[in-house]
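ingest -> validate -> predict -> emit
validate: passed (alphabet ok, no gaps, 154 aa)
predict: started
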Amino acid sequence: MVHYLTPEGKKQLEEKLNYYKTVRRVEVSKKIGIAREFGDLSENSEYDSAKEEQAQIEGEIREMEDILLTCHIIEKKEGASDKVEIGSQVKLYDEEFDEELVYKILGSTESDPAHGIISNISPVGSALLGKKKGDKIKVKTDGGEIVYKILAIN
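emit:
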C-alpha cells in the first residue's frame, strides 16, 4: 500500500519515529528492568505490562518505518487544478443541508476529519478524486446517500 504524505507530514512522522526509537524504547526498557527486580516473572504483572508496552512500541516503530519506506510525497502545485487529486482543497455544496464545506484531501496517515482533512480512501475523498468543478458526487453513508456539488478546487 502506498502512503501519501505532505513534506510536513513526512517530517513529523520521522520526528515521531526518532522519538520512539530514542526515548520510548529506553523508557520501556527501564520499566522491564525494574519489573525484573520484583522477582518471579511468572506472576509479575508489572513485567507483563512492560513487555506488552514494548511489543506495542516495536509494532508502531515497524509501522512508521514501513510508511516512510513506501510513502509518496504530495507535491505542492501552484494555482488551481482542473480536477481533484491528492493534495487538493475542495469546496463543496451539500444540497440536502444547503451548506458549503471545505475539505483537503490527503493520505490516510495525515487525515483529520475534525479539521477538514480527509483521506483519499475515505468515502468522500475517493468519490472526489478525478472530478472537476461543477461535477456532482454521490456518497453512500449509513444514513443514506449524500450529494455534493464541487464549487472550487485549489
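The first helix runs from residue 7 to 36.
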